[in-house]
Amino acid sequence: MRIYIIYRGPFGEQITNNLALKGFAEMISGIYELKPETIEEEYQEEDLWNKVWEEPAKYVPKSLPIKRCDLLLVLGIHSKLGDFIPPIAEKLGAKAVLYPIDDKQHAPEARKTVEEDLRAKGIHVEFPEPFCVLEGSEDPMINEFAQHFGRPKFKIISEGSTIHSVEVLRDTPCGSATSVAKKMVGFSCANLKALKEKLFSEHHNEENENYCLAEMDPLHPYMQEAGDILVDAFFEACGVPTLQELILKEIESTGKLDLSILKSKFVDEEKRCETGMTIERVVDELVRKGKIPRDLLHSHTE
Q: Which domains does the chain have, with CATH numbers?
């Protein structure tokens, strides 16, 4: 598989470096930093951005190296540059595009148009929010990538309640899972509250080699959700019930599904996760897997 990376800033740089260090360096066919300033420098025209939105293919950066790829990764670019991705993907011969959103400023302004344009060209696209929610895909290129990077997966060996070793079976794209794993050896699994606090603090610890760079806005708590994903994966490896299992048990015991009640219980009272977005995502995953009837979800959320 050949991977081409379109990026901007620290978010893209950290993920690119992590992929390269984890054995993907030879798969990376090209890297290009896409910035608004580059477009303005290369196309010095009046009313430039209106023209870009009308015909983005005409304004693809001249400096873009054309290297064939199978998978195009779009990492942290400015929201108004999303329209360039369909023509760029076509020029590179990409079969699929991964366009993660870990910050609302990275979400394409015309996401629906970007998606429609790519699919019209026969190019599969996915927008994981956050990137570390990725677990698999119907697309073979994205699925191959997701075997190595995405939702973290750990193997933990304990001596009594003390963690003896932690193996990262699947790293987060940013590499935070590997950095966290190094800090957890010798820690106890007995006190889940202390374990969760330790995992969260290391998850976005700027002193670590790699740490979460997702947005930490109360309105768009991607970092908190990414932390919930990592904690759940670590708890599962410790033999602790996952959030999916806890939510299913709650629904079975009450006979109903009410998102407000689930959020109150698992976010506010038990502190099992940090944000209600996590509850919404987990419930949606359970519906997609057929473990919760879709009509039950609708009857309590409409």
A: 3-146 (3.40.50.720), 153-301 (no CATH)
The tokens describing 166, both together, are 């932690």
Cα 81 to Cα 120: distance, rounded to the nearest angstrom:
19
Cα separation, 51 vs 255, in Å, equals 55
Q: What are phi and psi of 98, to 5 degrees?
A: -110, 120
Cβ(100)–Cβ(15) under 8 Å? no
* Per-residue model confidence as pLDDT tens digits over 159-176: 989 999 999 999 999 999
- Locate 93 and state its tokens: 């011969």
Contact 73/3 with Cβ under 8 angstroms?
yes
**Residue 297 pLDDT grade (very low, low, confident, very high; cuts 50, 70, 90):** low
Candidates 156, 129, 133, 159; CA nearest to 146 is 133
Residues in the chain: 302
pTM above 0.90, yes or no: yes
User: Would you call 57 helix, strand, or coil by DSSP?
Assistant: helix
As a whole number of angstroms, the distance between CA 16 and CA 95 comes to: 20
Quote the Cα angle for 130-133-137, to 5°: 120
User: Residue 178: what residue type?
Assistant: T
User: Please, what's the largest Cα pairwise distance for the chain?
Assistant: 69
Helix axes 276-288 and 243-254, enclosed angle (nearest 10): 80
Residue 152: strand, helix, or coil: coil
